[in-house]
Amino acid sequence: MALARNAVMPVDPVWDRIRQEAREAVQDEPLLGGMIHSSILHHDTLAKALAYRFSQKLSSAEMSEQILRELADDAYSVDPDLVQAARADIVATFERDPACNRFLQPIVFFKGFQAVQAYRVGHWLWTSGRQDLARFVQMRVSELFGVDIHPGARIGRGIMIDHAHSIVVGETAVVGDNVSMLHSVTLGGTGKEDDDRHPKIGDGVLIGAGAKVLGNITIGHCSRIAAGSVVLADVPPMKTVAGVPAKIVGEAGCAQPSIMMNQLV
């Protein structure tokens, strides 16, 4: 059907840039042409590309690619915020990860980004009452990427997980917007309690590699947790904590630690 004379075409600068970078990547490395065409260039929207990558990565003998593709297409159609969050995550990764120099890389190559997007579909299933299927998604993400995020956890936008190996996020954890974390971070509980038992991470927090944040505690916005720290108590906003157990060792040092990615104490 032809567009009305004054119809406005939707604009998606992030997706447009990804497609342009995909064309350049195929030109630079023709051996990747098949993968990049099927993953990016064969799709007319970011939502369709995300659904395709979700189904390609998570499919197995237990769950077909077609079923997972239909599931993800449904999720992105019903909840457009999933795609908005993905856009924010792509930009966050590009801006904060020095190893990322194209918007194309997270969606095609980075397991941290792919794990978070799969979690987002799993969380949509969880909140829609389809909890067993959400657990299946959690299982596959853990098997594939070494990232174990419970589908009941609540995670904001603009999330960057660098390297992403051995990330654990518990069921009642809450992660704000514009949070950065490195590999081997745990947002866990401290015992066998089954109520609200996991950390609440404020906006703009930077969590260093190997840090463990345990229990129903609050990490104030724009704080920094040093690598290898074990945090067992609340952290005020805009502070740096370090050690085992972690203690306040100074101010955060900048307005947006998660964006600056400065891990000096």
UniProtKB/TrEMBL annotation:
Single Gene Ontology MF annotation: serine O-acetyltransferase activity
Enzyme Commission no: 2.3.1.30
Pfam families in UniProt: Hexapep (PF00132), SATase_N (PF06426)
Catalytic activity: L-serine + acetyl-CoA = O-acetyl-L-serine + CoA
Pathway entry: Amino-acid biosynthesis; L-cysteine biosynthesis; L-cysteine from L-serine: step 1/2
Keywords for this protein: Acyltransferase, Amino-acid biosynthesis, Repeat, Transferase
GO biological process: cysteine biosynthetic process from serine
InterPro entries in the record: Hexapep, Hexapep_transf_CS, LbH_SAT, Ser_AcTrfase_N, Ser_AcTrfase_N_sf, Ser_O-AcTrfase, Serine_acetyltransferase, Trimer_LpxA-like_sf
Serine acetyltransferase N-terminal domain mapped to chain residues: 14-118
Entry superkingdom: Bacteria
First-level EC class: transferase
GO cellular component: cytoplasm
Family stated for the protein in its record: Belongs to the transferase hexapeptide repeat family.
NCBIfam families, per the entry: cysE (TIGR01172), EPS_EpsC (NF041874)
Name of this protein: Serine acetyltransferase
